[in-house]
Fold each of these.
Amino acid sequence: MSARSEGAPASGPRIGVFALQGDVREHLRALESCGASATAVRRPSELDSVEALVVPGGESTTMSKLSIEFGLIEPIRKRIAGGMPVYGSCAGMIMLAERVLDGRPDQESFGGIDMTVRRNAFGRQVDSFEGPVTLSPFDDPFHAVFIRAPWVESVGEGVEVIGRAAGRIVAVRQGSLLATAFHPELTGDPRVHRHFVEMVRAALNVTEG
Amino acid sequence: MAEITSPTLSTGTASAPATGTARVKRGMAEMLKGGVIMDVVTPEQAKIAEDAGAVAVMALERVPADIRAQGGVSRMSDPDMIDGIINTVSIPVMAKARIGHFVEARVLQALGVDYVDESEVLTPADYANHIDKWAFTVPFVCGATNLGEALRRITEGAAMIRSKGEAGTGDVSNATTHMRRIRAEIKRLTSLPEDELYVAAKELQAPYELVREVAQAGKLPVVLFTAGGIATPADAAMMMQLGAEGVFVGSGIFKSGNPAQRAAAIVKATTFHDDPDVIAKVSRGLGEAMVGINVDDIPQPHRLAERGW
């Protein structure tokens, strides 16, 4: 369903950044630096024009509320069901979780990844930290920034765990969906975004046969 | 100052995770961008703010409009009240400490607040020195009326800046002035030849390295929010268009006729700040805005924006 239109730039896939709230600019910049054509998405019509989506860091309760009120939640769920690649960092990871613990009772996520995520699991801001994490797609450790970060409590069978910190699952992949509890957009290390852009390219090639 | 904590990452590498680093502090503010932070004095108000879609709440003893009306010394909020707010909402909780009052800030850090606002809205505790904010694990936000003031606060360790505006008035004119001034002063720096940055630093009364960083990046090294007198969805949207990356609303919400609806409307107008149709839609039927005071009617010594230096 996300067939590339005729006018798409040859430079790279068109990837949207969910922009109702959060660190949108950092993700746009990281995606552009990896050769994608990145654009902010606040409206359903803007979602229609992208081939993949990044859900940034931010406040997941605010994202949930605004995506319901501005009619983005159902279109995003449909696109995810249709195979659109999505990457979520921190709050974005929460938005991609099928099940959320310690959220608000009325909090809704887009879902897509068969996992249970615990919100603010690493603690409050005074517990936020940075440090190296081993991620299975990369040879060298990734310097990761965790801010009031969630962790993944449990995953279903189809989910590949690609990183842990302090014994907790902090990076996962399921099909074309990728999620990290940390913020690669804050450190200038392009590897996670590059990995996602490659996932998008692979997914689009399959779609286009 | 980075503080090394014990939990080890399962990577087997030598470098331990670090809390309270500049990146972790500044990064927290990045996550609030595009959002609205609301002043609350009780857990009930905090709940209304969270329900409305606030990205964080700011705990304080009295909202600025009441501080103005009632006078007296205003201080950090009661720890019981802050605990109550922390236990009521799941979004970040900020709290105000008096300018220079490093012990109030220590208490707030011990209570587990997520950000400390060293705020001119409270009565200053030190008329010469601000808090040495590098010495804390918790990050700080500070007010500024111009670029030099913002850079001095960043030099002291502030991880987020907000315009001061004139709190408790419902008059947005000072916030406008501060946002425009900060933006214009940054723009001027970016246009200066390198050899004029030394004098620019002297004039701004800020360290040369920081001035040079701003000149090269064309923005502050930390997130810039707006605050002071924002009372309507259109006020919030205008501030965003003037370059604010997010909005603090103080008295504007809980001094209005319908706080829950106004709070939700300001959240939406902040996200769609460039879309007049959305702003028009959310501005309908909000009831009474806070009554407000014109900044010009406030005698000079009672203007909060002039506290801090």
Amino acid sequence: MQLPDPETLLAEITAKVQAQLQPNTALVGIHSGGVWLMNRILDSIKQDIPHGMLDAAFYRDDYAQRGLKTEPKPSNIAFDVTDKHIILIDDIFYTGRTTRAAMNELFDYGRPASIQLAVLINRGGGELPITPDIVGAEILLKPNQNLQLSQDTKGKLHLTLEASDA
Amino acid sequence: MLNPQLDADGKLKHLLTIEGLPKKILTQILDTAETFVGVAERDIKKVPLLRGKTVCNIFFENSTRTRTTFEIAAKRLSADVINLNVNTSSQSKGETILDTVDNLIAMHADMFVVRHGQSGAVHFIAQHVPDNISVINAGDGRHAHPTQGLLDVFTVRRYKPDMHNLRVALVGDVLHSRVARSEIHALTTLGVPEVRVIAPKTLLPAGVEKLGVQVFHDMKAGLKDADVVMMLRLQNERMSGALLPSAQEYFKTFGLTQEKLSYAKPDAIVMHPGPMNRGVEIDSSVADGSQSVILPQVTYGIAVRMAVMAILGGGA
């Protein structure tokens, strides 16, 4: 399968995020891919926008089955969430469970005015009534396929697709 | 031999002692604790990880700070917490430890936090409980106090991140101290190159060098160029009797004053596991001084205990 260039998709979602900016907008990236994307978006739009990052590991619904992931990253929301229009940013949208966890964590910081979701790729397979508002590309994948975003040492983004037999 | 603290996949199952734990697991606990520090600074200081779980604090020996911070940690993870002060309950009526534990298992407890005056008692309980229950040692006899050791190295790492380039001095009653043993194991496992103990000969266990520490009996030599000074509590019952002439004389020789602290590096941090005996092992001006990180230790203790419980509580 020919994968799209993530740098092109990033430019597209950057433009869409920019179009949504209001005086009270804040950006929140979900570790790790969402944080890379958020930092790139902030670099391009060159505006001083409140921003933060979430891990959501403590809010996941698979903790009882899988335990805590071994390398959780600190959440850091240094601005007041209350009454902000928040754009959550993630790399790949799949079941919607990470988004659910991130929204629950966000509400423990305060009561936002609204939350939108921006993703680089929607791979289909949603299991919850959550759909991204800003999407770079839709690529329907099978459950055994694993699409991963990575960032090289120069900050360039790459997509890799792996299939498992399981 | 299988490490009794790890499951077949090498994951942490109980936390009984730091001795023998792989560096990877210590680092995982410290990194996870780092993510919990921020939770305490939010409006809602709770995460839902242990929702619906019951944590039992079973203290066969008194404690205020440790029990309270374990309780706060469990509650911030949304667990239900039951505190048992066994001194004042059924043990005084003649119940055995295992009967006490079996009764709590029958009440569907999910995790035990245990302190006991006898070394090895918590290990004994961990061997007895069914597979789905985790046991955390909150101090057993003179043996180990692993969460204290972890919160101490967590505090060191926060102030002195380059653990591979540090000189740490432990001062005081190493002989009776489970805290000292856990600190030494944690520091050496994490690669601290120079760990010193400073104490009178009567307060050092035989063969303490085998733990990988350098021994000093003099504060000036022992504290020289130290980055971290960890004070140990001198228990009241040791202040008189055969081991020490008097509390005053101990303070004169081994009590940490500003003057003695000046032998250490100018940016050295001073730690104490509490409760402190001001004017015995530490002078008030040092305990309340700018180099003291004694109260941050308490704050970080909650994050570290949350991390241990979060790692033990998840996964099938």
Amino acid sequence: MSEKKGLYGIWLVVLGIAILIGLYTALKIFIQGHGLFNTNDVIIWSLPLGVYIFLALTSSGLTLLAGVPLVLMVKKYEPFAKRLVFLAIATLLGAFVAIGLELGSVENMFWILFSPNFSSPIWWMGFIYSVELLVLIVKFWRMHKGDWHSGFSNALGVISFLLALIAPLMIGSVFGITESRVTYFGSMMSVYSLVLGLLSGTALFLLYSTIFHRVTGNGAVERQTPLYNEFTVIFAYVAGIAVVLSLVKFAIESASTVPEFLVYHKFEHAFGAWQGFHFEVLLGLFLPFVLLLIPSVRKSMGGKAVTSALILVGTLMMHMEILLAGQSHPVGPKAEQYPAFISYFPSIWEWLVFVFALAVMLLLYTLGERYLKLAEAPQ
Amino acid sequence: MPRYAMVIDLQRCVGCGACSIACRNENNVPEGIYWSNKITETVGTFPNVRYHYIPTLCNHCEYAPCVRGCPTKAMHKLDNGITMHDPKKCIGCKYCEFNCPYGVIYFNWKEPHQFWKNNKVLFKGGTSSPREEVEKVGAEKTPYFNPERGATLPANRPKGVVEKCTFCDHRVSKGLLPTCVEACPANARIFGDIKDPDSDVAKLLGKFRPFRLREQLGTNPHIFYIRDFNPAQYRPTKGGI
Amino acid sequence: MKNEKNKIQSFVNGFRGDFVMTRRSFMKKATAATSTAVVLGGLKPSLKALAAAGEVSSGEMGEWKASTCQGCTSWCSKQVYVIDGRAVKVRGNPNSKVNNGEGCPRSHLGLQQVYDPDRIKTPMKRTNPKKGRNEDPKFVPISWDEALNTIADKIMELRKNNETHKYMLMRGRYSYMRDVLYDRMTKIIGSPNNISHSAICAEAEKFGPYYTEGYWNYRQYDVTNSRYILIWGADPVAANRQVSYYSSVWGDVIGKATIAVVEPRLSATAAKADIWLPIKPGQDGALAAAIAHVILTEGLWYREFVGDFIDGQNRFVADQEVNEEDFEEKYTHGLVKWWNLELKDKTVAWAAERTGLPADQIQHVAVEYAKATPHCISWVGGGPVMQVRGAYTSMICHALNGLTGGVDNVGGTLQSNKEYTKKFPKPNDYMDDIAKKGKKHEKIDQRGRLEFPALKKGKPGSAVVTNNAADGILNSDPMEIKVAIGYMNNFAFSCGQPERWERALSKIPFLVHITTNASEFSWFSDILLPDTHHMFEKWGYVKSIGNGYRHVTLMQPIVKPVWDYKIDETEIPWLIAEKLAERGFDNLLRHYKEYKDPETGKAPTNEKEFALYALKYATQNLWNPSQYKGGDKFNGWEEFLKIGVWNSDPYHYREHWGNMKTKTKKFEFYSETLKAALEMHAEKHNTTVDHVLEVCQYQARGERAFVPHYEEPFIAGDEKEFQFIFVDHKSRLNREGRTPNCSWYYEFKDVDPGDEIWEDVAKINPLDAQKLGIESGDEIKISSETGSLTCKAKLWEGVRPGTVAKCYGQGHWAYGTLAAKEFGKVPRGGSNNDVIPAVYDRLSGSTVRHAGTRVKIEKV
């Protein structure tokens, strides 16, 4: 037990250091500007934005899962509900850290309230996630107080569920309405975002749970194994949808004669694409999907951990791939000052933004797990 | 209220870039950012080769994707059709830059005009440092700083916000032509109110069949191109088998 | 790969070509969207009012002040926008009829020059006595007083020792105040050695016009009235001269005239031309000869100027001699001689073989060009003539203007309009015996020697051979140079084979450089004097022609000087004169005191008064209404200063017909003028004209020497080892090689077709590059027999295979922190002159910069 305590202490120290580094990074970015990133006027959005998208969508995925017991009233999942809501909150806060450090002038954020632009998907995205955060926190507070199914509490659950459905569509449409970048254009991006959000949310929950039970040695796991197995089936279904969507996407990309899609053949960088193959999709989606089709893998703790970890990393990389592929060639006259294709690898500061966001998220998980009785369920 | 537009006569354009350099000067545009720019192309194979030049700038679209997407209305339309940016409201999300189909919006990745903050001196006592020069001249950020730009926009934009061509709104409001128009030695740029049928732009648009950049996107750009950079004559031919 | 390239190309095309929506549908939409606004009726600004912008407007914080730009030798009249004594913007002066209020890209870079932190802000002296490329001069700041005392002491030492001829003045960028320093001071001190930069500029360009129509100057071209413009290695919308004027009318010109550009690389002008003739470097004379041949055999010459066969029957048949008596000339001289001596066998097929151009294209160009007579132009630029043997190419290309009657004619080539500036007082009375004796020595550039005829205006030994002065100094031949002053020149960068200058300058015991920046020349100097910038800080004037006018445009100090600069051509010589007077030699100061203020009759008492009075003195006929002689009229100095430019009367066409300044007063196809000059030179050296030509590396012998003719190019380097001919060209952003310390230069460098921003590239045809295994962006070394440079490779279709084209300007190893990669040590990019050998067109004295050398290219 004392050994565990020691490890816990080390874990907190590690997170503390990561957060200190993150604060330093924030200060540095605030003073020196985003020239610290390996971005330019062609690759405009980079790793911090990719991390934001990934975490925000994951948070939505978690909220949607929480909706199963809380909105759809599938009682047997109630033991997961509080943890799911809390993870959604913590993950969303991580996302906010990433986006906060991505914005050039975060101090002007209040204009989102005072000068709203209702035709902007970014505005809607910001608005919805802000409200979502608020609603989730209130819902969590109600649950923590034991109020799981009052009218108010139920309403909060429904609202958060609906927001979690819309938010990914908004993130998708941030890209989907950029007529000028055909690789993004259309409603596909919204659907894709929703599916990937559900996928990474499920993966995160599964991975988290397996690690949590492993670390704490909490006996609850034995009782809940059938539930986790069911979850894993949902997981496999979502992965299946993502596989189908990805195949459709590949088919369109490789058949298209639109020059912008050329980058998918030409572009190579550190996010999984290599030699024209999308390894992040092959290893981060197709492989775990195939593994999940094997019942023994699905049922073993190790299988759950490996597949969910693969998918979690894979989704982040897929977000990065999509994000970068649409920006890798200069638009219009920018081709005069930049080469025809630009590759990207994050700078140390961008990695640190990622670390900061993760550290905030993990610290919240850790503290929440310790102090907020996340396994609670209504009697 | 007028609706400003620009006609660029490619036949008159000599591709000299005076527009872009004068723009940099007028608007205190920092290094790496091009409010006024160009698209060039070398076509053909030796000896049948030509080089083409299309001047570009913000298209001041009627249906501007940058304006549509901006979450805080920092990017907005003025009544006279100018697509304007207010850096005070800009949160630096760069969505406008991401959204612009014409590649005319740039982000201030760092504090602009960094060269002029430098304290390095080539010959001690014999030359000055960039910072010393700016201070001695009594200017802001660059020695040739144009304070008039500050009338409608911070004369030097801070880091963390985007910037782009404003059709020299600070000049237009004073009855002066945009700097690129005035500085064009070839008279290739014609500026005016497209709604006024007697304006030169309206007359030219009635005379030629203009093209605009990426017209199919439906943004309704208000930079119109007429004629061709190289209107070369050639001997008539029916080709051959 | 190919397919991918096509796809990228189609993306670029798509970007501009997407005009799916028709204009009609657009207009409908626009009207619908804005109709409410129309009904509500806002302000309706008058565009006419907008167009008049330029007058001081209520909202403007500063004031537009007149000045002059000398970024190139267009010498446009400018206005500078000044706020609180600070220059903020530059534009064309609308009062000039030459540049018509238009500007150009390079003029704006003047702002980055005047406020360049690397400008020398105070005099400096060298503290490392050792001189050389690898010797840091260790400059330290000194006072003006100390600097001037040292200079005066050195000059007095020469005077004391009776060796004033060992004093030398080197001139670079000048205004017409030049004679104060360049001529008067040198003469009164007592030296023959005032050496200008002219021969590295374009003297050969003046040679052809002089020995055909008796006009030693650059021409103006009546482009708006022209129907065919044949351009030889000139790039009027990008580089010298009257870039602003030609840019302003070019869109109309290309609509009205056919434009053919002869140049091995696709220039900015060629990009907009009807016909690009990418000729093999050095073969321009062959093309011109064939065009002349076609014009004559097809009977297309302009009879009202040239005359005709007495019986009207054309006897110009290929390979057949013509009887001189059969042809009656009007305003020309020696047409039949020219035919018999040169043209009769210069067929299109013959030219096609040499020029690398298709025969039918040559034929077509010749016929179409001649059909436009007399409203056609043969425009001789520096390209084909700043070559070994370029003098004759200059003649034969320009001679076409005689055949077509385009010379001095509507839509043709024009001479200068009359202007009325006044020369400074004569120095003769102030030249003492030492000075007179010193002045008689031979000049350091060895002009006039057998191998340097330098035949300016028909006088042997009258043209400067700038680049040879380095050898004169190195060999102490004809004399040792002990004290030298250079101003606004940078021969250690701007001359071919500059390594000779590095050694020559190192050898001069006392060298002064008047300069804005510590340049390569400064590196070898003992004293640096901080110069004013001509456009913002100097009193002076220049004259220039274009658009059928001549203007005299003023430069004046219009900004608060940031540091302690002094004017090169007036203030500094005055201050030296004062110091010399203190040392007992007051001739120069007394002479300068003769430059009295024409308004008050007051003699100058200090350098500032002197600078102003000298300018007022020289321009008094322009602004003093009582001395009015023509052109614009002013009511006095103040008004002239405010307007800043005087315009001549308009051009009178055909005034020179029959009254040219040649021996025969006619346009000479057989140049009696050249014959006299060459014979005079031969006589001086007790030899024959043939021997002169042999020594000077020309091929012509006998009578052919006196007619415009083709000479084979003389290009250094063995063809096997050095496979490429080096093609030098100029940049739109060059202010005479002085802008590479300006960031805007690099940020907009790609306005030169084929060039890249922030890079110095050599443009190679992709076919050649493939053979060499070179790709765009590769670091390459270009070497000739005399030197090498390194730069980036750029594959570009606009270059003739077998040649490599590179823009002049970069490759500074000094000049400033941005210009050099490492100041004093490593150049940024490569300097073209490092591969160009010091060779000459000896008849004009010009330094060669085109078709001068072959080079090899290696990947680094």
Amino acid sequence: MTAKLIIDGQEVGSRLFLGTGKFPDKSLIPQVIENSKAQVVTVALRRMNFEAQEENIINYIPDDCILMPNTSGARNAEEAVKIAKIARAAGCGDWVKIEVISDNKYLLPDNYETIKATEILVKEGFTVLPYMSPDLMVAKELEKVGAAAVMPLGAPIGTNRGLRTKELVRILIEEIEVPIIVDAGIGKPSDAAEAMELGAEAVLVNTAVATANDPVIIGEAFGQAVEAGHKAYLAGLGRTKKYASASSPLTGFLNEGAND
Amino acid sequence: MLIKVNGKEEEINEEITILQYLENKGVNPENIVIQYNGEIIDGEDVDEIILVANDNLEVLKFVGGG
Amino acid sequence: MSFYDKYLKWEDFDFAGYWKQLNDDDIEEILNQERLNTLDYLALLSPKAEKYLELMAQKAQKLTLKHFGKVVFLYTPLYLANYCVNQCLYCGFNVKENIERKKLNLSEIAKEAEAIANMGFRHILILTGESRKKTPVKYIKEAVELLTDYFDSIAIEIYPLEIDEYEELIAAGVDSLTIYQEVYNQEQYDRLHIAGPKRNYHFRLDAPERGCKAGMRAVNIGALLGLEDWRKEAFFTGIHAEYLQNNYLDVEVSLSVPRMRPHLGSFQPESKVEDENLVQILLASRLFLPRAGLNISTRERASLRDNLISLGITKMSANAKTSVGGYAESNTELDDDTCQFEISDNRTVNEVTTMLHKQGYQPVFKNWHIF
């Protein structure tokens, strides 16, 4: 991990990615973005409701942000590809978060369809960040087909339960070369810090900020937690002297001369 | 004549462009996305394409999402 | 992308410069990390890391117990033939060596197999020299088909093959591949391999990967230590293993650390690898690749092998004969005339087993069985 976050060749200024769903008042969003210092901001695409027209979400997002439309609503690869293409045609840029959910009970991502969608969209020139259930073989496959980052869930979406998949995410961090971004489940700033201390390159937070009593302050707290966790990771946690060096029980034989 | 908008059938006047249709609905065409008979269309086309019977229109917009 | 691209990336790296700027803090820092990157591994192979061998050993032991438990897998080699068309300056099978050339026929192979199986082995490593004419794939395949009656797992250590040839042997019953690059340094490789198909560095380098692609269950690689600066050679072996692990998750990758032994012919090692150097290589490799198998052969003397077990060894050969027909043959004199290298640990299987039990380790003769 370098001190800078680079995704698909593009430098990203903040390791906190922010989702814009579930905000009680959209006008808070610019302030949340400013205070949290988030740069990558996700949005979703929906059919227009003519009866209840509201301000376009894009208008609340500062121009220097990287827009990352998600493919929420897609139940298979084909639908995800369609949504991604529409979003790009609408001027959202090349970034896309693949989110394919075919399970309405737990809202867990469909890893198989996610791989298929990733492969297609990479070929179409997208910068693809797939959201997935942390599974090493799937992550390897995503990397192989050209994912720009891999986004394992920390806990089921919207649950705010924290980094429940820690041991699996740790394996992905160790084995996958593209950035690992923990998405979903991060409920508290300390959860975000934990993911960063573990070596995640970034976290994506939405519900925990949007549904807090004060989204602006909590957004700021998340921004700080992400930075703190990343710094701790870079510094190397606790120089604990785990291996005492007083005696040489294992290598002493080397000093005993020709012992045969 | 009948066209389909966002999956629902709708009776509209003859000889109107997509832009006129949107304006009638009070929709600001900026930052919305139009899929016309399965194809995504650019801003300029909105003002040129005249709707005909059985057309399929998807009017999409960006909303909050994570 | 093949490992060759990775080799090229590091070929001109300033190894000496990197090792020189390391200080004690760097080494201690690395030993405190849970996971090592490529440069960390290189640092642990440095002269600076030499005084940290005990710390490395403690960590290596812990990691090995965590990933493998207290078991050592035992196997023995079976030399089918020693015909060879290559001229490798360091090898006793060199085409120019005037040794008795032999090739076992099927009934001789059956005799050897029976003798080996009677010692308790269920896994076998079969070897040939490189001669597609004398020991073609067809011959090896017939031998494998015969050996499946005696053994549950068959590994090959033969000349490098194409993917479809590996597939053919896998279909016949092979599940593991051992192939040593001998020398990773390409210039030195060219110097040491004077003639024969083995001159093709690239084809040999990619052989382990072709084995993975063909569906080998286990792949074992190594450099013949002593042919070139051992620190660099160990480094390339380690990153080669890492490359295979990363790209072929289903393959069990292991490393061997064969040291040059006196052998027929006049070539002697260029870079002396002392016991402490060998230990450093094993420990650095374990710390860099916690789940890789580490293999120590009977090239090494008994007392050293015994001491290495608790440092991270997971596989060892026992009661090995490196001559063709060495097991069923009663005349042991013959060994000395035609063996590929000298054996240093001549203990019987029972003696090795007893030694392992004494250290609290379980010898394993049968690791898996493919249905």
